[in-house]
Amino acid sequence: MLSRLIRHEWKETWRIPVISFIVILFLTLVCFICFRQMEPPADEDSINAGAFVIMMLYCLIISCISMVVTIYIAIRFYRNLYTDEGYLMHTLPVTPRQLILAKLLVAALWVFVLSMLALWAICCIMLFGLPAMDLVDMPVVISSLMEYFPQIFGMGPVAFLLFYVVLSLVSAFSNVLIAYAAVSLGQLFTKHKVMASVLCYIGFTMLIQTISTLLMTPSLTRLVLSQDMVNTASGIPAYFGAYMREILFISMAGSVISAVISYILTEYVMRRQLNLD
Prior knowledge:
Elements: H1 2-13, H2 15-37, H3 49-82, H4 84-89, H5 96-132, H6 138-147, H7 149-153, H8 157-186, H9 193-225, H10 240-272
Helix pairs in contact: 1-5, 2-3, 2-5, 3-5, 3-8, 5-8, 8-9, 8-10, 9-10
């Protein structure tokens, strides 16, 4: 039955994410064409204002698209399980866990693909946009990055890429589950359930950010205190790679813990505190 729920969820939700992917690819192509047509600024000490504005607008639009997809996922979860549609969904011969998992697997996949596509698109834009602004010489930057990659990120390029992909996948599940938990807690209110869900989501996000900052403070403190231990060849603090590695592992642990807690809250509310409109 879980596979049927997943297929149904896939058919019902593919339009908005796919449209978002197409928009991102189209915008990336447009920006690429614009950058290729731009001339470097006449003054070596100035930047190409047009390229700068395009890059800022592009990143802003990508962020808005990601937000729209997240809101769409939360709204569908709410309408499908906590409004009139919920009466039908909860009469199906399935458990609340199966309902949550079917929606989670599909939604997390869309969020993960969107994050990977957005990262690829932004990297492409920076690759062509920074030279258009005449800020950097990209071959030199890429060569230096590869040379000092372990000192910057605390691991090699291949290990970093694999870790980042896993982190993005875990973060996708975590972000979706946080939205589900906020919606589930919001529907416990008798009035203004949508507003309550939004406030719960904001509260969850602020709490997670605060805890993450507190956990990262010791690593940041060690980094600041190690400023005198700088690699003379690269100019990079000796502790910087270890700091970045710790930040990545803290982010991974935070995503896993927040995902587990959010899932437990969501399933508990759906099993014990269901309050349909």
